[in-house]
Amino acid sequence: MNNIKFRSYTPSGMIEVKTVDFETGWATFNDVLGIQEFNIKEFPLLQFTGLHDKNGNEVYEGDILLRDLGYVKQMEYICYEKGMFKGHWFKEWRNPFKKWFPDDTTLDAYSFIKQFEVVGNIYENPELLQLDRKVQ
């Protein structure tokens, strides 16, 4: 059984959420000053999917994952939609234009999770979602 865990992105960075009270809308986290509270309406909760990437890193909502197959690179971000976690993905074929092209389909990331690695998240690394990003 997977633990239900959350984290949240706040102005001071990504934090690991310790407790959540959904009735009051407040959550807690620990920092150097001790236990702190924040309003989950101001800083949304990002749930742990229960999965780990190819390097053993936990995968959360909002994470950006990369899969490099050599002939194609796939990048996706994880979101919770219609009762399930999904990966919305972008792909770049090795072509002269070297651009990321969006695909209007949704990929079930869980089928391929051990091929992906977490490379950032949509809050701290929004530049990774730029469609015209050149691939090295």
From TrEMBL:
Organism: Clostridium brassicae
Ranges where the YopX protein domain occurs: 37-130
Gene3D superfamilies the UniProt entry points to: YopX-like domains (2.30.30.290)
InterPro entries with a match to the protein in the record: CHP16711, YopX-like_C, YopX_protein
Name of the protein: YopX family protein
